[in-house]
Amino acid sequence: MAKGYWIASVSVADPETYKKYVEGSAAAFKKYGAKFIARGGEITTLEGSPRARNVVIEFDSVETALACYKSPEYSAAKAHREPVAEADIFIMEGYTGPQPND
Questions:
Q1: Does 98 map to a domain?
Q2: 29 contact partners, CB below 8 Å, separation of at least 6
Q3: Rounded-to-integer distance, Cα 53 and Cα 100, Å
Q4: What are 28-40's pLDDT values in tens digits?
C-alpha cells in the first residue's frame, strides 16, 4: 500500500496564535502516526510562488492521512489556524512504481 502525504504551504499572519494550532495538532499527528518529512525549513523557489511555511507529513496511507485531517483532534487545532493563516493543504498518494535508477 502506498504512503499518504500531507503537503501544506502556509502564510501565517499571527505567529503567537498559530502556536496554538501547532500545539493542538500534535495530538492528532501522534494518534495517526504522522512523520514530518519537511517542516518549516529553508526553501529554494524554482518556479511559482510558495508561501513562507511549507510542510510535508508522511502517513501509512492516504486513508490514514485523510482520517487525521477529519479527526476531532485536528479539527479543534485547525480552528486556531484558520483565523490567522492562509493555507493550501492537500493529500497526495506516494509513488510505488519504477525509479530512474531501476
A1: no
A2: 57, 68
A3: 30
A4: 999 999 999 999 8
Residue 38, all three cell numbers: 519537511
Count of domains for the chain: 1
Amino acid letter for position 90? F
Look at residues 90, 70, 67 and name the one whose alpha carbon lies nearest to residue 6: 90
Pairing outcome for strands 4-12 and 53-59: antiparallel
Q: What pLDDT does 50 receive?
A: 85
Q: Is residue 97 part of a domain?
A: no
The residue length of the chain stands at 102
**Residues 28, 80: Cα–Cα separation, whole Å:** 14
| pLDDT value, residue 35 | 98
